Amino acid sequence: MYINSRLLKSSRFIWQLRSITNSYGNNKQLTEAVSFIAIHLRNKQLVRISGPGSFIYLQSLLTNDMRKLLLPKYAEQSSSSDSRNQLNPVIYSFLLSAVGKVLCDLFVYRGRFITAECSDYESDGEFVLEVDKSLATAVKRLLLSYNVNKNIKVELADDLNLWAILPASLLNKHYSADTIDETLRPIDSDDLKLVADPRIGSKYFGYRFITRLGGSSLKDLGPYIKCQSNHERIRLIEGQITDYIRLKYQLGLAEGHNDVKSGFYFPFELNGDFINAISLDKGLYTSEEKTIKIYSTQPIKQRVFPIEFSCQNHTLRRISPAPNTLIYSVNDRRKVGQLHRRIGRFGIASLTIPLTSNNIPRDIVTQDLYHNDTGLKLRASIPIWWPKNFDQIYLNVPKYPECLFNFDNQNSHVQLT
């Protein structure tokens, strides 16, 4: 009996010691500085679109649903966990050609003087497009060519600065992100916008930060990031554009003119259904019928995959694989795809998903691949944010609306005959 009581007292002491240790660890986390990487995206250009009917104008051109920017019930359909049950300050979309192929990809930010009333959908509004800098002039010219009524104003928004805010854990493999809260509260105003990445969320690709008339240097961003963080101490470090591109390739994201070659790929081949860039319920837009046709002929036989070369960086500097070159399978010497771009050992490639005789997809990541021009070996991988059945289209069955631009069918101003 005496021994049992001593054991009981010692066990109580151990549990008390554990609780004290855990509470000390939690307090330490509260005072630990959280690191963020700020990257000035100078390879991007912001374009402002304003004027009566600007909402309808963009709704009839883009693959994504502009109503997600204005009404919560459409924002809830977003695949990003950061955007559920609230308005989306930004969406990601494609601009298609007449034959249904992607001309360019872009981000659309909600601007000023936007109203969500159905009776006022032609009121004056403003949207900001984020496009690749090398395509900004061409996109502006294309948008003006679609403006038949001459009531839309398209101009370069040189008064805005664009940054990518990435948690340091995304760029440092030895950094533990499980014990530290790296989320930032969003900002949605006329002069400042801090929003989670609309494609795969802030957990994997951080935030985008737009500032007006300021914010061109790193020291201007610190107070805003500190106010939106849950920690008292933050460390803001300026990163390079190569850090952004490397992480983008590791996640298997194709973005910008270097990755998305104009007029070569259909939206689903660029994983548009995975990154929340396509809406099947919005109604008519440019080449909408071609997109629906591809949707009805599943499975998708080609997608963009992240790839990694098996050699060292110094070998890649000596033998540099050129972009838009072929990739073959080691086993059967068969062409399986094309290299888009790379930075160091990491890159992205359009690869054909192999099928068996029963049209059952085989795993492309189990195959040994090599670059045709250089003979360098490489492997494809499946990003952690992808759905399980990546050969299928990751979208719900379309429910076509009665009216293309109506927010509420009960208040419809267009009568169907």
UniProtKB/TrEMBL annotation:
<protein>
    <submittedName>
        <fullName>Transferase CAF17 homolog, mitochondrial</fullName>
    </submittedName>
</protein>
<dbReference type="GO" id="GO:0005759">
    <property type="term" value="C:mitochondrial matrix"/>
</dbReference>
<keyword id="KW-0808">Transferase</keyword>
<dbReference type="GO" id="GO:0016740">
    <property type="term" value="F:transferase activity"/>
</dbReference>
<dbReference type="GO" id="GO:0016226">
    <property type="term" value="P:iron-sulfur cluster assembly"/>
</dbReference>
<dbReference type="InterPro" id="IPR045179">
    <property type="entry name" value="YgfZ/GcvT"/>
</dbReference>
<dbReference type="InterPro" id="IPR027266">
    <property type="entry name" value="TrmE/GcvT-like"/>
</dbReference>
